[in-house]
C-alpha cells in the first residue's frame, strides 16, 4: 500500500532533484561573484597602471597611436634630459661644435628625440 500515492523512492528522487537544483543555484551564484571579482580586479589593475603611466597615457597607448609612433612620455623625457646633462658635463663645448665627433652625434640624437612634435599638433596644422 502506498501512502498518498508516493513511494519512498519517489520521495528520494524529488529530494535529490531539489538538492541538485540548490547546488546549481549555489554554483551559479558563485560564478556571478567570481565574475564580479575578476571585473573588479581588472578595474583596479587598469587604475593602478593609469596612475603609474600618468593620466591618460593608457588610453593614448591602446586607443590612439601605434606603439612605434608613440612619443616620449614624461619619465622618458626626464631621462633624456639627464643624459643630455651628463653628456654636456663630460665633454667640452668644442667637441659639440665638431660634426664628426661622437659627442656631437649623441647630442643631436638626444635633441631629436626630445624635439619630436606630438601627433595631435601635426594633424591640426
Textual characterization of the structure:
The protein is an all-alpha fold. The chain has two domains: 11-70; 71-117. It contains six helices and no strands. It has helices at residues 8-53, 57-64, 74-90, 93-97, 102-115, 119-124. α3 (74-90) packs antiparallel against α5 (102-115). The longest helix is centred in the first third of the chain and has 46 residues, at 8-53. The protein is rod-shaped and about 105 Å long. It starts with 7 loop residues before the first helix and ends with a helix. Residues 120-125 have low confidence and may be disordered.
Keywords for this structure?
disordered C terminus; 2 domains; 77% helix; 125 residues; 0% strand; single chain; mainly alpha
List the helices and strands and how they pair.
Blueprint: H1 8-53, H2 57-64, H3 74-90, H4 93-97, H5 102-115, H6 119-124
Helix pairs in contact: 3-5
Amino acid at each position: 500500500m502506498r501512502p498518498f500515492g508516493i513511494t519512498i523512492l519517489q520521495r528520494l528522487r524529488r529530494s535529490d532533484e531539489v538538492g541538485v537544483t540548490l547546488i546549481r543555484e549555489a554554483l551559479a551564484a558563485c560564478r556571478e561573484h567570481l565574475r564580479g571579482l575578476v571585473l573588479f580586479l581588472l578595474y583596479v589593475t587598469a587604475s593602478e597602471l593609469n596612475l603609474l603611466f600618468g593620466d591618460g597615457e593608457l588610453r593614448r597607448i591602446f586607443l590612439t597611436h601605434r606603439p612605434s609612433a608613440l612619443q616620449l612620455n614624461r619619465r622618458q623625457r626626464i631621462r633624456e634630459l639627464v643624459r643630455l646633462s651628463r653628456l654636456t658635463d663630460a665633454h667640452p663645448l668644442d667637441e659639440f661644435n665638431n660634426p664628426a665627433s661622437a659627442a656631437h652625434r649623441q647630442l643631436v640624437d638626444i635633441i631629436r628625440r626630445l624635439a619630436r612634435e606630438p601627433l595631435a599638433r601635426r594633424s591640426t596644422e
